[in-house]
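Students often ask why we bother encoding 3D structure as a string. The short answer is that it lets us treat folding as translation between two languages. Here is a chain of 301 residues written in the first language.
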Amino acid sequence: MGLRALLDLPAPAKLNLFLHVVGRRADGYHLLQSPFVLIDWADALHLERRDDGRLQRHDLSAALPPDDLCLRAARALQQASGTRLGVDLSIDKRVPWGAGLGGGSSDAATTLLGLNRLWGLAWPRARLLALAATLGADVPFFVGGHNAFVEGIGERLTPIVLPVAWYAVVKPAAPLSTAAIFSSPLVERSPEADIVAGFLADAIAPGAVADGWTRKLLDGLGRNDLQAAAEDRCDEVAQAAVWLQARYGNSRMTGSGSAVFARAGTGDQPLAAFPTEALPKGWVGRMCRSMARHPLADWAG
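And here it is in the second language, the structure alphabet:
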């Protein structure tokens, strides 16, 4: 009969340690270069098999849009595989939306990985990656299973190895629209990005990053070329950056949302505890630890 349910599947968030805009395609999509790192702030998904082919989503916390990315991922996999099975998909949403943390994309990736097992499809990772690329720019990264240097519009992944590190992450009350940020005339462009790509070509051993490159990443190499545009649209982004800078000596926006993070050390404990009691009203935040690989990395070959 096969599996009936898969419960408590993690969908971890990500940080962009830097985000360089390096060009724009004829169709308007921006070309990026960014190291993506997984963190332990995660949503939880529960998948229960249906034999009638129906796809049903149940929101256990925050209410999601009627046809969210998880349902679209399930529908795409169902249609592409030809399976007659369906799913009851329950989502405990813990990662804030509109934050640039990739929560929706991660949920979609966990949906693909989970249904690949629940429905007994046994698709290889390469096939899941091709489907993930049709759903959204960040979805392939989470399906890939490892921290990665991401290029293009998100489809080109080079696995990288980074030491486990701590990051203080703050999400102000206001969300940000990705489309609104990328359409801003304040989006910057990094002339040094091609140099970064060249360094990667020389520095990456199979599946690893050279020590010098690792130190540069942890020391705050690069910038987020979308941050000026985000701060122009949302004062709280700048306020969050100042808030973290005062406590950890550094800060940077992640992705194209309103969340900001600060490096807070490596090792078993962060350099300083997260001051939850000092968060302004309406803000959420926590101390996050990076992850070496996705918890479901082995669920696709």
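Translate back mentally: The first strand starts at residue 5 and ends at 16. Keep this in mind for the problem set.
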